[in-house]
UniProtKB/TrEMBL annotation:
Name of this protein: Heme NO binding domain-containing protein
Lineage, highest ranks first: Bacteria, Pseudomonadati, Pseudomonadota, Alphaproteobacteria, Rhodobacterales
Gene3D superfamilies registered for this protein in UniProt: H-NOX domain
Molecular function (Gene Ontology), one example: guanylate cyclase activity
Cellular component terms per the entry's GO annotation: guanylate cyclase complex, soluble
Length: 195
């Protein structure tokens, strides 16, 4: 697994549960190191050992933590660059959803060796969508649930999300757009401002 993904989980745990909790996880996992390097690649076994150890130490279901990590990636002010990358997908939430098909390619533009599984958005009816997440990265759909929820908040829209199981080997997320402009969205400018 790409180190950037492991490093994102490390940042989520350290910020949410404290650096001490992260240290306990890594000591218990016995991987031989305490931090993940963002630009290295780790074996699936190393990544899975870390994730399952975190689940045991923090006593929270892994799927729930991964969804929370997805929310963290969008809402944490220190990760504004990722939020900006996602917001370039559209001026509203529906346009953003339609841009998700291109997310793996956009991720590769930013990090050449980061291979995210394919995504396919299917519009079932106005305001009702299914996002099909291709296999290849365990927990990917859970992280996307958090990202989708946080982006809806970012746009100020009210949505219902449901992990609907699998279809043709892809995990399916059902998305129902209940109300646009439900709340005031976060400000977003195309031009980045430097201090």
């Amino acid at each position: 697994m790409h180190g950037l993904i492991n490093r994102a989980f490390q940042a989520f745990v350290s910020t949410t549960f404290g650096g001490g909790s992260w240290q306990v996880i890594m000591d218990t996992a016995e991987l031989g190191f305490n931090e993940f390097e963002a630009m290295l690649t780790y074996t699936d076994e190393q990544s899975q050992t870390m994730l399952h150890t975190a689940e045991q130490i923090l006593q929270r279901p892994l799927a729930e933590m991964l969804e929370d990590m997805g929310t963290f990636l969008v809402s944490n002010p220190q990760l504004e660059a990722l939020r900006r990358l996602l917001r370039f997908g559209g001026v509203n939430y529906v346009e953003f959803l339609h841009s998700l098909d291109d997310l793996p390619d956009r991720a590769r533009l930013a990090v050449a060796d980061l291979n995210l599984p394919g995504l396919e958005l299917i519009e079932q009816a106005p305001g009702q969508f299914e996002l099909h997440c291709q296999p290849g990265l365990p927990g990917y759909a859970n992280v996307l649930m958090g990202v989708l929820r946080a982006m809806a908040d970012d746009y100020g829209d009210l949505v219902f999300l449901d992990h609907s199981g699998t279809q043709d080997n892809a995990e399916v997320i059902s998305i129902t757009l209940v109300e646009t402009e439900f709340a005031e969205g976060r400000a977003f400018d195309l031009g980045a401002h430097s201090l």
